[in-house]
Amino acid sequence: MNKDGQVATILCIEDEEALLDELEEELSAKGHKVLTAGTSDEAEVILSRERPDIVLCDVMLPGRNGFDLLNGLRRSGKLSDQTAFIFLTALSDREPHLTGLRAGADDYITKPVDLDLLHLKIENTLAFAHRLREGSIAVTERPDVHLSPREEQVLSLLGAGERTVGIAYKLDISEHTVNQYIKELYRKLGLGNRADAARAAIAMGLVKPSGRDLGR
């Protein structure tokens, strides 16, 4: 269990058995419910019956790689908007990272996995969901925060599940400009990823909840 007493359901998708066992052991020791899969197909079966809070996914998987899996899940609607998706990867080049972000990933952790960093990212994700349930998300903790009309538009589209390219198209601005708005929103609101942004947009009344609870 982490320092705030928050636990999660976490799906780990990794074909390297030793690393998968290590992740399961580490996360279970923190009190989390850990689901495991070695391929994209196995992961999709699990996601058909479970709704994890966080997905940790290797990029280089046998068969469909992690990018293809995430793209398919986003298109089919099989991945909850409230599920944070984090890639684990040995790929350090800029282009693979951009590919993952365009597919809708929330973050990257580079291999070899820094377990302290992994635990911290998980804690932060759960802490935000807890503050939202308690009605004290980062927006209320920062009374001086002010969003411009354009920032509200970007946040509302993030909350509706739009990717950067879709936001750029709808607002008739460049992807670079969208990314600058997103960066500023994260700074102002204390957000860590797109799942946080979706929760903030719902809490601020910019989008309507989908009827599913906002984190467990």
Can you walk through the features of this model?
With 216 residues, the chain is of the alpha/beta class. It is 50% helix and 12% strand. The protein has 10 helices and 5 strands, in the order βαβαβαβαβαααααα. Strand 4 (84-89), helix 4 and strand 5 form a beta-alpha-beta unit. Helix 8 packs across helix 9 (175-189). The longest helix is centred in the middle third of the chain and has 19 residues, at 115-133. Mean pLDDT is 80; it is low at 136-144 and 210-216.
Would you kindly provide a brief summary of this structure?
Helix content is 50%, strand content 12%.
Radius of gyration: 17 Å
**Assembly context of the chains:** single chain
Strand content: 5-15%
Element-by-element helix/strand order: EHEHEHEHEHHHHHH
* CATH level 1 name of the largest domain: Alpha Beta
Instruction: Look at the helices and sheets and give the structural class.
Output: alpha/beta
Residue windows where pLDDT falls under 50 for at least 5 positions: 136-144, 210-216
Stated plainly, the CATH topology of the largest domain is called Rossmann fold
According to CATH, the homologous superfamily of the largest domain is Response regulator
**Could you say what the CATH architecture of the largest domain is?**
3-Layer(aba) Sandwich
What is the total number of structural domains? 2
